[in-house]
């Protein structure tokens, strides 16, 4: 019998923890995790975060395997990830009609549910009985689906599922203008049930759109029909709104610790390093305490002053929660991962020590992350007078699976079992790195020989549209029409993309369709769609601004932008 290496023994220790704390609760039929032993509701967001530790451990075993038994464990862990992700996929596909309606209405009543039964995968509450519209949850699912697929897992099995995933992309692409209930399912801070634009939802949607773009869901075995396509302009709109909001979370929430998931793992949605630093510093300064971070200022959840008989509070009443908000160890886990990805071992170790001081130890010696720490009722007045001085007590679930999973990931990173790149095979963590200057390429083509000759008289040598064959030049409306075919599926009753808008980022690429290559002229030059295009002086000004926009916005996109402009007779009429 071969002896185990030290790393193998340590991995086995984490495998036992994951098995006992996480895997033991996975439903054998649906693959979903219940919220607790008493509550069989399975939240999309919590389930995805729960499985991250399993995925990380599987990759660690694959890398460190020194016995066949290790490879068997890795395979079992991988298949648990696949089962969970497919369980969520099946649950959402049961609501395919809602996906189709939501693309047209953006009505909260028409959205996918945020939670399902862990026993059956069916819905557990009515459409209007919960704040189901949580764009960040669907986006997180798509993001992790993309990362897991890129790591080699086969989660999507057929083209019907590919079509559904493509429609989920269309479902979230308008996140930048879709008010939702956010990561805490409550919308407005007063809990009136009013959805609002949330930076955490927009950021997660932006990350998901970028991660899914050009991803082959069948991995190395796929082909053109299993590739997901995203209009780059939709991700850019999310980026613009996100950067204008940070470090603010929403209209009612000045700040939210949930933004840690946007500026760092898993989303890495912000390109501006200074904005990332500002957001992180603001969260640490305003929300961090001894036991974790507050979710947001004046958060009354599970505080002694909260009245469980009331559904909402008036804005002026929220002041009674000031300085006694519950602190969540979950956010220490996010900060540990953040510093691991930055390579700052000292800061990661410091937060790990803070976290482990407040973790709950079992009789077997396992450390559990509780959901939150609350000020006891008898210490509230003292906490009001001197914030942060009173001892707090753990409340809620223990372990809090979402946090426990992230804690285990952090330990695997710190002990060298995982490298940051393995948790981020799509390299999203590099989005804030400095990149070379973008060179915008502009190609001017003549509509016909007559235009070409006129331009030649002024020493402007161009080709005609016919001469650039085999590349076909088409207006933007053709690209828009082609995108409507993506995701169409009669069996599922899905119709593909509804919006006909196509931006400059999408038309500044070459497209391959079958054996043909297409170039598309920008939407602002299409006279049949845009009467402004008939005013050539105005069109030139618009063209200049669009090129400047391309230069600043062509981030995390392969190659150089190519703007194709067709010079027509109307442009030369003086």
Automatic annotation (TrEMBL):
Endpoints of the signal sequence: none
Main location: membrane
SUPFAM superfamilies hit by this protein: Six-hairpin glycosidases (SSF48208)
Protein's cellular compartments: Cell membrane
Membrane topology: Lipid-anchor
Entry GO terms, CC: phosphorylase kinase complex; plasma membrane
GH15-like domain span: 8-520
Pathway: Glycan biosynthesis; glycogen metabolism
GO BP term, pick one: glycogen metabolic process
Keyword annotations from UniProtKB, A to Z: Calmodulin-binding, Carbohydrate metabolism, Cell membrane, Glycogen metabolism, Lipoprotein, Membrane, Phosphoprotein, Prenylation
Domain of life per record: Eukaryota
Any one Gene Ontology molecular-function term assigned to this protein's record: calmodulin binding
InterPro entries assigned: 6-hairpin_glycosidase_sf, 6hp_glycosidase-like_sf, GH15-like, PHK_A/B_su
UniProt key word Membrane: yes
Protein family membership: Belongs to the phosphorylase b kinase regulatory chain family.
Free-text function comment from the UniProt entry: Phosphorylase b kinase catalyzes the phosphorylation of serine in certain substrates, including troponin I. The alpha chain may bind calmodulin.
Protein name: Phosphorylase b kinase regulatory subunit
